[in-house]
Design goal:
2 domains; alpha/beta; Peroxisomal Thiolase, Chain A, domain 1; binds oxa(dethia)-CoA; 301 residues
Length: 301
């Protein structure tokens, strides 16, 4: 479809393969599958959920919220439901918000899902984006901790000054859909990849330092690291700067591409299933993406 090569994609990004949703599949369909699995593995019934929070930049539609569509499909009758848009940081923002409701005692059982159908908003004629982004969903059930396992520290950040670096220009209230916007391909994602790359490394390193400091931890205290999966060169540079060994770092970029909010959620599930994370491990998560937004969190698993 575009002038590119397997060699360029794998050496410049680290991506070898990725998953693309079917034509009739939307974000809520991916979210539904992930939610069913998360509920099953947490042994929680959908009826017992107090809140459903979907992190996505590819909602089924502008409104109603994808979380509401999901709530109905799951039969989570008593759950409040809303979407959260923080691009690649959506899952960590979501975990942070959900955990606050639990910490205050307001809610007991919260489902946080990151679901993206990015193939639907990628311009398949734009080689700077169409070789990178992919579809997927991951979900987690949050419940009060009985002691050992907990969120040790969280840091969330944003810089709207970089809002023009990645996004979909039309279809909102600024540039409503028109024949003109369709003709100009403004409903597709536009990205200034190179500028994002430079900021990603710097900001992810700073975010990690802040979350470690808030948890009174040093890099040596981290057992496992799940970074956002945008580019293997970004991950390598971040890991080198904080001085972690690469065998503590989880990579799914090669198999899954960049799934925005879903990247970390899916990676967490994969790492658990591959026995890469043990009970009691201190796991570091860090993300950076559109908005700009970023987040870093340390969890005792
Ligand atoms: O998910 C969070 C938000 N996104 C990010 O964090 C993305 C961060 N950025 C990146 O991962 C990288 O910037 C990209 C993978 C998007 C691009 O890699 P790059 O090394 O920054 O490439 P570039 O944009 O500087 O382009 C280098 C060259 C250009 O050609 P010339 O001008 O040197 O002749 C591009 O036209 O590579 C060309 N190019 C391609 N060539 C083959 C750009 N895309 C492609 C492609 N295939 N798909």
């Amino acid at each position: 479809m575009v002038d590119t090569s397997d060699e360029w994609i794998s050496t410049r990004t680290g991506i070898k393969e990725r998953r693309i949703a079917r034509e009739d599949e939307a974000a809520s369909d991916l979210a539904y599958e992930a939610s069913k699995k998360a509920l099953e593995s947490a042994n929680v019934r959908a009826e017992d959920l107090d809140m459903i929070l979907v992190a996505t930049i590819t909602p089924d539609m502008i409104f109603p919220a994808t979380a509401c569509i999901l709530q109905d499909r799951l039969g989570a009758k008593k759950a409040a439901a809303f979407d959260l848009e923080a691009a690649c940081s959506g899952f960590l923002y979501g975990l942070s918000i959900g955990s606050q409701f639990i910490a205050t005692g307001m809610y007991d059982t919260i489902l946080v899902i990151a679901a993206e159908a990015l193939s639907k908003i990628v311009d398949w004629q734009d080689r700077s984006t169409c070789v990178i982004f992919a579809d997927g969903a991951g979900a987690a059930v949050l419940r009060p901790s009985n002691g050992e396992s907990k969120i040790i520290s969280t840091y969330l950040g944003a810089d709207g000054g970089g809002a023009d670096l990645v996004g979909v220009p039309a279809g909102g209230s600024r540039l409503p859909a028109s024949l003109e916007t369709v003709k100009n391909r403004q409903h597709y994602m536009k990205m200034k990849g190179n500028e994002l790359f430079k900021r990603a490394v710097k900001i992810m390193v700073q975010a990690i330092e802040i979350s470690l400091e808030r948890g009174k931890l040093s890099p040596e205290d981290i057992d496992f690291f799940i970074p956002h999966q945008a580019n293997i060169r970004i991950i390598n540079a971040v890991v080198k700067r904080i001085g972690l060994s690469m065998d503590k770092v989880y990579i799914n970029l090669d198999r899954c591409g960049n799934m925005s909010a879903a990247s970390i959620a899916v990676a967490l599930d994969q790492a658990i299933k591959e026995n890469r994370i043990k009970r009691g491990d201190r796991v570091l998560f860090t993300s950076f993406g559109g908005g700009l937004t970023w987040a870093s969190m340390v969890v005792r698993f």
